[in-house]
Write a structure and sequence with these properties.
This protein is of the alpha/beta class. The protein folds into 2 domains: about 1-65, Phospho-2-dehydro-3-deoxyheptonate aldolase, domain 1 (Alpha-Beta Plaits), CATH 3.30.70; about 85-335, Aldolase class I (TIM Barrel). It has helices spanning about 10-25, 50-55, 105-120, 145-155, 170-175, 190-195, 215-225, 255-260, 270-275, 275-290, 315-330; strands at about 1-5, 25-30, 35-40, 60-65, 85, 90, 95-100, 125, 160-165, 180-185, 205, 230-235, 265-270, 295-300, 335. An 8-stranded parallel barrel has the order 7-8-9-10-11-12-13-14, surrounded by 6 helices. Helix 3 runs parallel beside helix 4 and helix 10 (about 275-290) runs parallel beside helix 11 (about 315-330). The two termini are about 45 Å apart. The mean pLDDT is about 95. The chain binds phosphoenolpyruvate (PEP) and manganese (II) ion.
Length: about 350
Amino acid sequence: MVVVVEQNATEKDIEGIIRILNDFGFDVHRSTGVNQTVLGAIGVKPDFDTRQIEVLPGVAHAYRITEPYKLASRSFRQEKSVFKFKNCEIGGDSIVVMAGPCSVENEKQIFTIAESVAKAGAKFLRGGAFKPRSSPYAFQGLGEDGLKLMRRAADEFGLLVISEAMDSNQIEVVEKYSDIIQIGARNMQNYNFLRELGKSSKPVLLKRGLSATFEEWLMSAEYILSGGNQQVMMCERGIRTFETATRNTMDISAIPVIHAKSHLPIIADPSHGIGIRDKVIPMARAAVAAGADGIIVEVHNDPDHAKSDGAQSLFPNQFEEMMKQLRVIAEAIGRKIA
Ligand code: PEP
Ligand code: MN
């Protein structure tokens, strides 16, 4: 931590700051210039609250210089994490595409969609069986029956399954049918739940909270990692901003920034990221160009009658076109679509 001392601080103030830093267990190195003193405090614990120092008389600022997350950081692991699956790997050179409806609705729907996304090159079938809806009156998902349908549809067309768990008591059933457990944006800060996911043997896709900073999001990943589950993937799905023209603001900058800060793969969700069907493909293209390790996208055979998120779901032929375009962009940056 670097402590910048106020220009008009007295020698007594400075000695007081040093004493308190020592009391907290820090080694303190003092540099005094003509009219500025800076203190370097070595040995900051990840959970130290810098405001404890900022409130002291004579302190102008206190800055942390190491990240509060450890296991998620690049300094802990220099090379990117790569997770192996039956039909692909995530985090390596190839970009993995996950596609399917927002919600599993019925057998015919999920089999029709699974067949078309598999044909176009998806590796994972996405679909919610437990749905976090803003309204308690909206369709809440088919639960375990939906998971069973997804598993059958995915197996039939050579796909793997990604589906959401909303609560600790849903982990077991989602693990049973799904290859990746998706954690929704609204649950990113549900710390007890994240701790439980640390005990799972299944990989976790951690969506970014609606107003989460990169640091908060990585701290949530840290909960899962420190619980013992090393297979965590980050998912940028758009954040809340002042803009009202789109459902969310897709933060493409998250892709290179998370890659710089962390070894964990990052997947982009252009469907929730922008929320408007005809703008989903441009966002997917941008995400691949920015270095995303995967794309998770909503596709529906009849989006006009979808039970959720029809307006942001691609028609199957649009998905096919998106895949063609992504292949060209991947190649341009030395990667390929898995
Ligand atoms: C979803 O993937 O359908 C979903 C509900 O996502 P999010 O948690 O990002 O809103
Ligand atoms: Mn959705």
